[in-house]
Amino acid sequence: MSDQMKSCPKCDSPYGYPLDNDHYACPECDHLWNSKEEKEVLQLNILDANGNVLTDGDTVIVVKDLPVKGAPKPIKAGTKVKNIQLTEGDHNINCKIDGFGAMALKSIFVKKGG
Q1: pLDDT tens digits, residue range 39-73?
Q2: CA distance 18 to 22
Q3: What pLDDT digit, counting tens, does each position of 21-43 carry?
Q4: Are residues 56 and 24 in the same domain?
Q5: Which range of residues forms the domain containing residue 89?
Q6: Which of 3, 19, 20, 60 suits 71 as a labelling partner, its CA being 20 to 30 A distant?
């Protein structure tokens, strides 16, 4: 069956499975698409606190202490976050932060860093 799987055009999951001859579904983000249409490209123009354009996979640095609901301590300014994923919405960065796990951040509270 793996030869019939296609990468999801929304989240790039490799597990898109066929519903019929032309339509596929992604088990990770629930996206449905027609394989005969061109791969849709989600163009997001997201800027960091300094006005630099962010892209998927960037490393960013938190610029101020950020309180986290349910956590005993905030995310400290200077925390490095690797391999971010951009999304639409108010909290437009999905990432994993050591000691906190999966999080959604606002791009205005980070700067592009190495």
Answers
A1: 444 457 899 999 999 998 999 999 999 999 888 99
A2: 8
A3: 778 888 988 888 887 664 444 45
A4: no
A5: 46-112
A6: 60
